[in-house]
Amino acid sequence: MNIDKYPYMDTTGMAATYPPPPPYMQPHETVVVTSVPTVVVRYNCTDTPTITVCPACRQNITTRIERSPGLMTWLLCGGLALVGCIAGCCLIPFCVGSCQDVDHYCPNCNHHIYKYKRM
């Protein structure tokens, strides 16, 4: 048997291999790719109201802030109590805004945007 004459024939006698199928034309398709821009907003919120874009309502806003006691407030209270300010002076950090954490909210939809923690 001549291998050059029959290149797709199995010489072992076990099974015959077949030639690959003829090439065919695929239908011509037009693919339109649309992408939605991904906006990554990095909040530079500190303890003051910040101008930003609300992720919920997509409006340009100046955040509304609310202060709440955080770790720094409690540590200062405990430190003042250890020093001897037990007669109510250890509660001063709860009245000082710069000792507390700050929550930033959207004034339009009241969405919580960011929490600024002192510690």
TrEMBL record:
Cellular component terms (Gene Ontology): cytoplasmic side of late endosome membrane; cytoplasmic side of lysosomal membrane; nucleus
Transmembrane segments: 71-94
Primary location class: membrane
LITAF domain location: 34-118
Pfam families xrefs: zf-LITAF-like (PF10601)
Record's bilayer topology term: Peripheral membrane protein
Keywords: Membrane, Metal-binding, Transmembrane, Transmembrane helix, Zinc
Subcellular locations according to the entry: Endosome membrane; Late endosome membrane; Lysosome membrane
Record-linked PANTHER family: LIPOPOLYSACCHARIDE-INDUCED TUMOR NECROSIS FACTOR-ALPHA FACTOR, LITAF DOMAIN-CONTAINING PROTEIN
Protein name per its UniProtKB record: LITAF domain-containing protein-like
Source organism (scientific name): Geotrypetes seraphini (Gaboon caecilian)
Gene name linked to the record: LOC117345670
